[in-house]
């Protein structure tokens, strides 16, 4: 959602499929997009290639971008965990922006989608 709003604010063309791991989509409108996407995926999944992804991003974009990317990734992890733990609801104003993004990205395929506002599960909408 933040990516879409940021892109709208700056009139930057993006492809949200980058969020689903589409390297071609990541290259649209975002400098170092593929490297940032691979780094973010490794951070989120805590996989064994994180060190390699960190080096790739550092070599492609430099230390300032790597530090910023690590900070953003850490902040999103923190915010998501706090919101999930507290059961913070999404307000009606945000719901209208969130639901189209959820549908475009097909997030209902993830087990955690049952905790997301607007995701259709077993025919019901939450």
Topology:
Layout: H1 2-10, H2 23-26, H3 33-45, H4 50-61, H5 63-86, H6 92-105, E1 120-121, E2 124-125
Antiparallel strand pairs: 1-2
Helix pairs in contact: 3-4, 3-5, 4-5
Question: How would you characterize this protein structure?
Answer:
The protein is mainly α and 126 residues long. It folds into two domains: 2-88, no CATH class; 90-126, no CATH class. 60% of the residues lie in helices and 3% in strands. The chain has six helices and two strands; from the N terminus they run H-H-H-H-H-H-E-E. The chain has helices at 2-10, 23-26, 33-45, 50-61, 63-86, 92-105; strands at 120-121, 124-125. Strands 1-2 form a two-stranded antiparallel sheet. Helix 3 runs antiparallel to helix 4 (50-61) and helix 4 (50-61) crosses helix 5 (63-86). The radius of gyration is 16 Å and the shape is globular. It starts with a helix and ends with a strand. Residues 120-126 have low confidence and may be disordered.
- Biggest sheet strand order reads 1-2
Average pLDDT metric: 81
Radius of gyration (Å): 16 Å
Category from helices, strands and their pairing = mainly alpha
The helix/strand series, from N terminus to C terminus, equals HHHHHHEE
Name the helicity range. 55-70%
> So what's the overall shape?
globular
Keywords:
single chain; disordered C terminus; 6 helices; two-stranded antiparallel ribbon; 126 residues; 60% helix; globular; mainly alpha
Outline of this structure?
By secondary structure, the protein is mainly α. The protein has helices at residues 2-10, 23-26, 33-45, 50-61, 63-86, 92-105; strands at 120-121, 124-125. A two-stranded antiparallel sheet has the order 1-2.
């Amino acid at each position: 959602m933040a990516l879409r709003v940021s892109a709208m604010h700056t009139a930057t063309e993006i492809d949200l499929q980058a969020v689903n791991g589409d390297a071609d989509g990541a290259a649209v409108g975002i400098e170092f997009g593929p490297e940032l996407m691979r780094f973010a995926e490794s951070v989120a999944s805590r996989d064994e290639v994180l060190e390699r992804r960190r080096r790739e991003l550092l070599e492609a974009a430099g230390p300032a971008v790597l530090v910023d990317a690590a900070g953003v990734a850490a902040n999103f992890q923190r915010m998501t965990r706090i919101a999930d733990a507290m059961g913070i609801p999404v307000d009606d104003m945000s719901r209208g922006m969130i639901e189209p993004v959820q549908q475009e990205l097909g997030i209902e395929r993830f087990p955690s989608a049952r905790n997301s506002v607007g995701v259709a599960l077993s025919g019901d909408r939450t």
